[in-house]
């Protein structure tokens, strides 16, 4: 059944039932149990930020589905060179079957969705990363199961914000530990509460990790924040995911990549049997393929 939404700008644009169905479809497609096709569909991919996983997973995914992906970087189109975003959106909507956008400002992806006459997918903004959440939930489902407790440790960034809401929708318990000045938008916890989650943020990473099945972290210095490097490294002292933090637990470790080894996570943890990061990276493609089929009407 097609999704009720035309666009996927954040994880709660779908219902919990639709999210569960998306993950079911992703698992079935990954296992080769079903092979839906997108025919000659074209996905326009707008990138304001460089990317490895987002570009390669969407481009390869569209190829595997029988469609075509078109990379549109800052120097390839008029976006950022004088043309209003709404004009770009109107034109793209008449050419392509869907748009995936990796942008800085979340309002920009909302503008694209408002003016493009085709489905728009948020491939990342400064506020949200719902495609990563789909991959995260698929990975948890495959490994520790959805009866899990996940500790988010580090920056209250876009990845974490989407994950907290998505986990609530999937019935996964989440604890959030961030430095006092780098927490998540309180509205994120309100959204999670709508799905029955009671997330009490803390500034104590040890408390968050105690008894957790999964520990999830991300970079402390995101793209565009390089001027805050020294300030943030000082503020995040004690939040590194390392052997000491994980001691006494059987927790696996997640990271959306790229990782700054030696900052938010140590090299030995990423290279250990605890790490689920490579499964997460692979699952970007499988989860997004399911999303593409649902939004673009694959058969």
TrEMBL record:
Stored InterPro entries: Asp/Orn_carbamoyltranf_P-bd, Asp/Orn_carbamoylTrfase, Asp/Orn_carbamoylTrfase_sf, Asp_carbamoyltransf_Asp/Orn-bd, Orn/put_carbamltrans, OTCase_ArgI
GO CC annotation, single: cytoplasm
Keyword annotations: Cytoplasm, Transferase
UniProt-recorded Gene Ontology molecular function terms: amino acid binding; ornithine carbamoyltransferase activity
Compartments reported by the entry: Cytoplasm
Domain (Aspartate/ornithine carbamoyltransferase Asp/Orn-binding): residue spans on this chain: 147-293
Any single Pfam family the record assigns to this protein: OTCace
PROSITE patterns tied to this protein: CARBAMOYLTRANSFERASE
Top-level taxon in the UniProt lineage: Archaea
Keyword Transmembrane: no
Class in the EC hierarchy, top level: transferase
Record field: catalytic activity: carbamoyl phosphate + L-ornithine = L-citrulline + phosphate + H(+)
Gene3D superfamilies listed in its UniProt record: Aspartate/ornithine carbamoyltransferase
Family, as annotated: Belongs to the aspartate/ornithine carbamoyltransferase superfamily. OTCase family.
HAMAP family the UniProt entry points to: OTCase
This protein's name: Ornithine carbamoyltransferase
Lineage of origin: Archaea, Methanobacteriati, Methanobacteriota, Stenosarchaea group, Halobacteria
């Amino acid at each position: 059944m097609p999704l009720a939404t035309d666009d996927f700008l954040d994880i709660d644009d779908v219902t919990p039932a639709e999210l569960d169905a998306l993950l079911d479809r992703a698992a079935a497609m990954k296992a080769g149990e079903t092979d839906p096709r997108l025919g000659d569909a074209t996905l326009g991919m707008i990138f304001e930020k460089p990317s490895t996983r987002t570009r390669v997973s969407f481009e390869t995914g569209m190829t595997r589905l029988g469609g075509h992906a078109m990379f549109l970087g800052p120097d390839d189109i008029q976006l950022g060179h004088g043309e209003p975003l709404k004009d770009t959106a109107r034109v793209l909507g008449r050419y392509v079957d869907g748009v995936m956008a990796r942008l800085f400002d979340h309002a920009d992806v909302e503008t694209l969705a408002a003016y493009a006459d085709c489905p728009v997918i948020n491939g990342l903004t400064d506020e949200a990363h719902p495609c990563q959440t789909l991959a995260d939930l698929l990975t948890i489902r495959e490994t520790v199961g959805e009866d899990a407790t996940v500790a988010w440790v580090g920056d209250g960034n876009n990845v974490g914000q989407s994950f907290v809401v998505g986990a609530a929708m999937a019935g996964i318990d989440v604890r959030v530990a961030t430095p006092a000045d780098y927490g998540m938008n309180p509205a994120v916890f309100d959204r999670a509460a709508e799905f029955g989650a009671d997330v009490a943020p803390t500034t104590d990473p040890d408390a968050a990790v105690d008894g957790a099945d999964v520990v999830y972290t991300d970079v402390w210095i995101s793209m565009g924040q390089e001027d805050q490097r020294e300030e943030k490294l000082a503020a995040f002292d004690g939040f590194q995911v390392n052997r000491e933090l994980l001691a006494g637990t059987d927790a696996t470790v997640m990271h959306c990549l790229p990782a700054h080894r030696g900052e938010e996570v140590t090299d030995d943890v990423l290279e250990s049997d605890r790490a689920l990061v490579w499964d997460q990276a692979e699952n970007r493609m499988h989860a997004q393929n399911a999303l593409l089929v649902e939004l673009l009407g694959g058969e």
